[in-house]
Amino acid sequence: MPQPRHRPERRFPDAERKIVECELETCPHCQHPLQPRKPWHMCKTVQTLAGPLFVAGKSKACNNPACSYPGRHYYASGVLWISLPHSTYGLDVLAWIGWQHEHEHRQLAEIWRELNQRGIAVNERNVGKLYRQFLALLGGLTERKRQRLAVVAEQYGGLIWAMDALKPEGHGTLLYVLYEVLSETPVGAIVLDHPTADELAAWLRPYQALPFPVLATLSDGEEAIIAAFRICWPGARPQRCQSHWLGNVVEPILTVDTQLREQMRQDLGGLPAVPERADLPVPPIPVAPSTDAPLFYPPHAMLSWSRSRLSYVRPFETR
């Protein structure tokens, strides 16, 4: 008899889909355009405070044979800004748990019950794990992460740093998370209240001292993050996250679209609704003439019809 699963399988058929592509357009080494790859390098369903989200990342590759690092794959860093690797909970959930426990002084059992009320499928034990992940991010660089960065720096010829600011729901304090894109490694985090570029640069000093070249930097467009990256790594190419950039471009369009939709609803709201099924008259089905009724056909028509009828009926009658 099969044993029950310790953790039941969770399905979210109505989860929103989000496909994240690699933000880099050209190779950091040869400046040749990167080619998108068809398969996803990762996919998972993430539980966020806004609802479940199916996330998939698409990578790119350098196909230039003259490149010093040909065939290298460059992954989508935007997936790291949604959740940590191998985690099915969003970073917003992680930041919210940390804020509630550290600043609101709430117990993990209280946090667990409120998360369930908000639609997050999690047990009390996993809430404790998520809180420890939050503390690990604040702890900064570990020896294991340093070794992983060394391997990636040797494989790609350098690192690509990315930073994103996450605001816990209902609070003004921001959680700044630093990632290494090529290794998909969240390196460290810090909680600050709208810091300046110098404050962020001071936090980045230990990472600046690492003996690894930096190929590029990625950000969401925040001026303080861009300036801090420029202070610490002036030779690295700055790159903006495409998902944040597209979101900023679409924002005014969505505002106009919402106004247009409301105006059309007011103008067309008095019209009768379109019926789901039109009751159209059914045309009469033509009925073949009875053979017993007298037929008044011209002689040549009568002959042709009789021959065709006999040729069809005779095989049936002789069975």
Polypeptide structure, described:
It is globular, with a radius of gyration of 33 Å. 38% of the residues lie in helices and 21% in strands. It has 319 residues and is an alpha/beta fold. The protein has one domain (16-250). It has helices at 91-102, 108-117, 124-139, 143-156, 197-208, 223-232, 242-268, 299-317, and strands at 16-21, 35-48, 51-61, 73-74, 159-166, 174-180, 185-192, 214-219, 237-240. The chain contains eight helices and nine strands. Strands 7-6-5-8-9 form a five-stranded mixed beta sheet. Strands 1, 2, 3 and 4 form a four-stranded mixed beta sheet that branches.
What portion of the residues fall into strands of 2 or more residues? 15-25%
For the termini, the CA-CA separation is 62 Å
Instruction: Give the % helix.
Output: 25-40%
Tally of helical runs = 8
Question: What sequence of helices (H) and strands (E) makes up the elements?
Answer: EEEEHHHHEEEHEHEHH
| Overall mean pLDDT | 80
Strand order of the largest sheet: 7-6-5-8-9
Task: Tell me briefly what this model is.
The chain has 319 residues and is α/β, with parallel strands linked by helices.
